[in-house]
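Input.
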Amino acid sequence: MIASFFVVDFMHINHDLKHNISSNGNCSKIEWFRTSHNTLCILLEVADNVMSPFILVSLICAVFQILLGIFVLVDISQITNATIIFFFSLLFWCLQYLFQLCLILFAGAVLHDAAHSPAINLHQIDQTSLSITETLQLQTFLNALSCNNIGFTAWKMFTVNYGAIVTLFGLYLTYQILVFQLKLDLNLDAKIDERIDCNCSSVDIDIPKSILNISIHGHIEL
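Output.
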């Protein structure tokens, strides 16, 4: 909800900027748009200081719970006495954590794009008609948009954008495959140990008496 408020404000600034640029590329309020955008960025920074720890903890817990939930779902599907209620309850929690993860990631990605959206319109301004002061204002605005990752962060570690979605999906997929591979290796080792124990217990050594005849005195008679 907080992200949606910032998205609406950033889109309003971008909408007004787009209509302020004339057909010949002139813009008379560059500094006003720059200061308005910068004010929103300052407010977003304050909100990020409060929300960024929650975002990081939520992302880690959601990925971890989905990882374990999918593993348990696959594991109990091979058990015949598993109840349907337990299966669907576990599926419900997995979907809930998946929804929470997608909500955080897509809200942050939309906010990141909305905060950087004025850059497209600023490049349409004809700089030949600008004064030196207006040119400096335009370059300052463009540098702020191109050099800074504006948006919510995961405790200042990374900015939540569309790139973070791909990164977290790759992280989840990698560890999910490793967990399943570890389970297969453990099952294979258990089956090998069981087979060895069965073979050892079934070995019956039968030595014919015609070959060896151990006498009472400990001598071997052929």
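The helical segments are 2-20, 30-76, 84-116, 118-122, 132-147, 162-201.
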